């Protein structure tokens, strides 16, 4: 043996040449067990007079060479079996038949089968069995061997049964090892999938919280900014209207704080009290439009009904963000119209303003920024769609969200099909 495999097989080195404790050869236990069985067993046979010659150093070598060869059984299983079987047969020519000096070839035969080579194991076992019968059985008289070395009918039948058992155990051990490897692989894949799902859920939760904070802070801070400008402008000439502007600022800031606490409520510990603020949804549309900071006309068509919580909240946030954009871009004299249309399988929202800031570009470029992108992402996450753009001197945000009625069992799966090609 040369290269990385040189030296004792139970001290394998890694490619850097340093000893790697993770690769300590587990076969050293079989070597020790084989040596103990052979040496102690042969010594016991000698004490009972079942070894017919004095145990000389050569006899001890025959007893030890097979177990020592087991150290290489994983790399050369057939060769190791041949060496161990030859040494055991040689010792069998001077001792009564016994299993104690056949432990090494049995372990080597087990290893051949465990490597997935049952045919080689069967052929090797058959050759060793035939050699043993020819030498210690049929050829004992011609070779001048002691009569006690000849196997009886019992030994002649038990030996092939023991060999077959070792082959079976080796094959079963290989199957079990493959099964355990597959189980560990499946567990590792499941663990990776679970970790990936947790990371994805955490990312989606961060995105949701960021979107909620953007909607809350963008809406209320925009309102505060507008009212603060009004208050500064009217402070000297119309103090009463300035007072109203400051009151609106106070209300908007308090509402912003409440909604921020509600958004961050998902991070609260289990022993904290649940938030008492009502869930955001179209039921609070009146409060939203009243505090919008500009005239808003609301129109509801269709039969109002309870919506899925995620759809109800998304509808509220989209209207809130659209009104914030109106306040930012549509000029000081802008007004907005909000339409809510309860369709049989969907909810349609339309937010339109009738003003445009002086010098503001026409076309989709006017929708550049994070507001429209956030609203579109929110709609698409629920299977809906959003369109936004200038129309008749103003700007229109049109949204279609899946919202099946309670008696409609079709659900969201066929929403996209039934609304295919519908212009929002």
Automatic annotation (TrEMBL):
Residues 176-213 form a coiled coil. The keyword ATP-binding applies. Keywords: ATP-binding, Coiled coil, Kinase, Membrane, Nucleotide-binding, Phosphoprotein, Transferase, Transmembrane, Transmembrane helix, Two-component regulatory system. GO terms for molecular function: kinase activity. The keyword Transmembrane applies. It catalyses: ATP + protein L-histidine = ADP + protein N-phospho-L-histidine. Residues 409-424 have a biased composition (Basic and acidic residues). Residues 401-424 are annotated as: Disordered. It comes from Paractinoplanes deccanensis. This is histidine kinase. CDD domains: HATPase_UhpB-NarQ-NarX-like (cd16917). The chain crosses the membrane at residues 24-45, 52-72, 78-108, 120-140, 152-172. Its EC number is 2.7.13.3. InterPro entries: HATPase_C_sf, Sensor_HK_TwoCompSys, Sig_transdc_His_kin_sub3_dim/P. Residues 205-271 form the Signal transduction histidine kinase subgroup 3 dimerisation and phosphoacceptor domain. SUPFAM superfamilies: ATPase domain of HSP90 chaperone/DNA topoisomerase II/histidine kinase.
């Amino acid at each position: 043996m040369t290269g990385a495999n040189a030296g004792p097989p139970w001290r394998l080195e890694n490619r850097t040449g340093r000893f790697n404790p993770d690769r300590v050869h587990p076969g050293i236990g079989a070597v020790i067990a084989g040596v103990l069985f052979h040496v102690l067993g042969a010594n016991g046979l000698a004490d009972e007079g079942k070894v017919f010659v004095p145990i000389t150093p050569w006899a001890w070598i025959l007893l030890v060479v097979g177990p020592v060869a087991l150290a290489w059984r994983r790399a050369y299983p057939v060769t190791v079996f041949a060496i161990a079987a030859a040494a055991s047969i040689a010792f069998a020519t001077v001792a009564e038949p016994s299993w104690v000096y056949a432990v090494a070839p049995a372990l080597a035969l087990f290893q051949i089968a465990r490597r997935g080579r049952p045919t080689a194991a069967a052929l090797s076992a058959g050759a060793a069995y035939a050699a043993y019968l020819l030498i210690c059985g049929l050829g004992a008289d011609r070779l001048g061997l002691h009569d006690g070395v000849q196997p009886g009918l019992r030994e002649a039948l038990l030996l092939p049964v023991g060999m077959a058992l070792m082959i079976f155990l080796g094959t079963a051990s290989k199957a079990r090892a493959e099964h355990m490897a597959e189980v560990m692989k499946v567990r590792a894949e499941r663990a990776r999938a679970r970790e990936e799902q947790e990371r994805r859920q955490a990312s989606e939760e961060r995105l949701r919280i960021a979107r909620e904070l953007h909607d809350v802070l963008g809406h209320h801070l925009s309102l505060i900014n507008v009212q603060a400008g009004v208050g500064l402008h009217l402070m000297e000439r119309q103090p009463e209207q300035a007072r109203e502007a400051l009151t609106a600022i106070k209300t908007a800031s308090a509402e912003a704080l409440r909604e921020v606490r509600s958004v961050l409520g998902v991070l609260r510990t289990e022993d904290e009290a649940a938030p008492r603020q009502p869930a955001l949804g179209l039921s609070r549309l009146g409060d939203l439009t009243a505090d919008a900071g500009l005239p808003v006309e609301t129109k509801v068509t269709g039969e109002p009904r309870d919506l899925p919580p995620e759809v109800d909240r998304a509808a509220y946030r989209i209207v809130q963000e659209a009104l914030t954009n109106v306040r930012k871009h549509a000029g000081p004299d802008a007004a907005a119209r909000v339409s809510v249309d309860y369709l049989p399988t969907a909810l349609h929202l339309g937010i339109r303003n009738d003003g445009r800031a002086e010098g503001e570009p026409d076309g989709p470029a006017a929708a550049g920024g994070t507001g429209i992108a956030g609203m579109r992402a929110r709609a698409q996450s629920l299977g809906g769609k959003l369109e936004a753009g200038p129309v008749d001197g103003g700007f229109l945000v049109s949204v279609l969200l899946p919202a099946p009625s309670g008696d409609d069992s079709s659900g969201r799966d066929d929403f996209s099909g039934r609304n295919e090609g519908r212009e929002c």
